[in-house]
């Protein structure tokens, strides 16, 4: 008998799986997805995830074999953690706090992660900020049998460029595949809304959906406010539009909530905005679409246009989308610095896997395996869960990635544009000025707010605190802060990364 011990997610192709596995279609969603997991495991065993599309992490107990089987989806959209206790038990689940509450867990800070965090700004790799607790990585499953833990990899991103197709043919394939996926993203009895920024990804998802309402966040500072562009898109597509204006006071007041519910520190300033957006959306919907995945798959970041120039040098420095502090600076500000804990080591295996590929494919693979899992999907899962909102990401799908994996890089970026083929596909349902709009990013006015003494008092206090003294040479971090206040706005990310760690540490090691 197979028992479901833990499950988080949404199985997109449930209708096809129910037919194939002979599961009744009259079941509730919860009953249906549980039945799919059990029957898929019985039919395909460890290969089951390669038959499933969607977002999922789960643990199954095989009573006959006396074996635990835990699996995380190909991209890591849902988290999964595990911890071996001193007396030989395995704790596991989709929530850090659930593990912490179980007998045998010993709460200790893994200080090595702080050193990595100052570069990445998120918990990168399989280790966590809690000593002994690990993440099951994307595309992996674990088995626990007779007190023996084994980790296996069942899927990895692979790139096999196909030069036989034209730009229009690639765009057609993206479009028809997304059409198919959109029929699966929700059931007929479900209603949803869609997050909308000024960018092409969320605009394309909205245009391809049947949702009637788009949700966006904005600011009073117009130069940072994408919501006006989002509203134009919603108007063109004939959808209602909800805009949530975020003030600096609300933004800073939300930081402890975010760090507590994130369960590990995250130095992505947009996470605070996303958390507020999730809470606002949850007031009037239970399901919301979001556009994550396309940037990493199809060459969406402006830095990808430099890929050819970086060439073979990539493997000496490129560790993903963020690289905030270099080793010399970390050595200067940290009380404990270990020269053997280097960010580039997390990417070494990926560069080995991509040997012989073009530079853009290498950059994309690093971001898919490190940045997407460690930052983007962590943020989406934890902030939506905290708000009681379910987010579904149509563009994060192995069928979409399959197209990207075969597409030559010349159809992803060129000298003038990024995401060329993807934008060409989006132009089938969007005006060209939206489909080919320059990428703005999820901009937050934090770089100006944090320099304002009306809002930065908690930052100042934490930078001078006994808590900061545990980890940092406070004179050094305050010199960085003073330089930022003095006009060096490039320092804002460094300040924010240190600050978010201190807020998180206070939530998990001082208050509790």
From TrEMBL:
The record marks 292 as: Important for beta-aspartyl-AMP intermediate formation. GO terms for molecular function: asparagine synthase (glutamine-hydrolyzing) activity; ATP binding. Its EC number is 6.3.5.4. GO terms for cellular component: cytosol. The lineage of its organism: Bacteria, Bacillati, Bacillota, Clostridia, Lachnospirales. The keyword Magnesium does not apply. Pathway: Amino-acid biosynthesis; L-asparagine biosynthesis; L-asparagine from L-aspartate (L-Gln route): step 1/1. Signal peptide: none annotated. Belongs to the asparagine synthetase family. GO terms for biological process: asparagine biosynthetic process. Residues 1-147 form the Glutamine amidotransferase type-2 domain. The keyword ATP-binding applies. PROSITE patterns: GATASE_TYPE_2 (PS51278). Keywords: Amino-acid biosynthesis, Asparagine biosynthesis, ATP-binding, Glutamine amidotransferase, Nucleotide-binding. This is asparagine synthase (glutamine-hydrolyzing). It catalyses: L-aspartate + L-glutamine + ATP + H2O = L-asparagine + L-glutamate + AMP + diphosphate + H(+).
């Amino acid at each position: 008998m197979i028992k479901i011990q833990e499950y988080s997610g949404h199985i997109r192709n449930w209708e096809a799986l129910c037919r194939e596995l002979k599961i009744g279609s009259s079941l509730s969603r919860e009953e249906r997805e549980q039945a799919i997991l059990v029957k898929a495991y019985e039919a395909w065993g460890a290969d089951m995830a390669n038959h499933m599309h969607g977002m999922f992490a789960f643990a199954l107990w095989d009573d006959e074999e006396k074996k635990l089987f835990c699996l995380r989806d190909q991209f890591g959209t849902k988290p999964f953690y595990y911890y071996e206790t001193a007396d030989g038990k395995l704790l596991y689940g989709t929530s850090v706090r659930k593990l912490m509450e179980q007998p045998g867990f010993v709460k200790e800070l893994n200080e090595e992660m702080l050193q990595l965090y100052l570069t990445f700004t998120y918990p990168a790799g399989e280790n966590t900020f809690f000593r002994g607790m690990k993440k099951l990585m994307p595309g992996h499953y674990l088995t626990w049998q007779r007190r023996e833990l084994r980790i296996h990899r069942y899927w990895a991103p692979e790139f096999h460029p196909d030069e036989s197709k034209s730009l229009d043919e690639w765009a057609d394939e993206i479009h028809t595949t997304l059409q198919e996926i959109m029929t699966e993203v929700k059931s007929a009895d479900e209603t949803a809304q869609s997050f909308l920024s000024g960018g092409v990804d969320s605009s394309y998802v909205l245009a391809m959906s049947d949702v009637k309402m788009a949700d966006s966040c904005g600011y009073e500072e117009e130069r940072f406010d994408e919501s006006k562009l989002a509203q134009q898109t919603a108007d063109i597509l004939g959808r209602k539009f909800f805009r949530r204006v975020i003030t600096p006071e609300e933004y800073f007041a939300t930081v402890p909530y975010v760090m507590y519910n994130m369960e590990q520190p995250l130095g992505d300033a947009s996470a605070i905005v996303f958390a507020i957006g999730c809470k606002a959306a949850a007031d009037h919907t239970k399901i919301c679409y979001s556009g994550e995945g396309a940037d990493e798959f199809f060459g969406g970041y402006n830095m990808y246009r430099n890929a050819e120039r970086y060439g073979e040098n990539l493997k000496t420095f490129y560790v993903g989308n963020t690289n905030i502090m270099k080793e010399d600076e970390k050595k200067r500000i940290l009380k404990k610095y270990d020269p053997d804990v280097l960010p580039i080591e997390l990417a070494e295996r990926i560069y080995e896997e991509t040997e012989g590929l073009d530079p853009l494919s290498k950059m994309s693979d690093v971001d898919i395996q490190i940045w997407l899992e460690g930052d983007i999907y962590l943020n989406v899962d934890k902030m939506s869960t905290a708000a009681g909102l379910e987010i579904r990401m149509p563009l994060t799908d192995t069928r979409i990635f399959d197209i990207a994996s075969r597409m030559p890089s010349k159809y992803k970026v060129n000298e003038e544009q990024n995401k060329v083929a993807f934008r060409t596909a989006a132009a089938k349902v969007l005006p060209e000025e939206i489909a080919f709009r320059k990428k703005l990013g999820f901009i937050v006015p934090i770089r100006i707010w944090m320099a304002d003494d009306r809002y930065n008092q908690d930052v100042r206090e934490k930078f001078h605190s006994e808590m900061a003294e545990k980890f940092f040479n406070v004179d050094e971090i305050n010199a960085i802060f003073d330089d930022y206040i003095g006009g060096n706005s490039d320092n804002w990310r460094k300040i924010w990364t240190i600050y978010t760690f201190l807020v998180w540490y206070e939530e998990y090691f001082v208050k509790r």
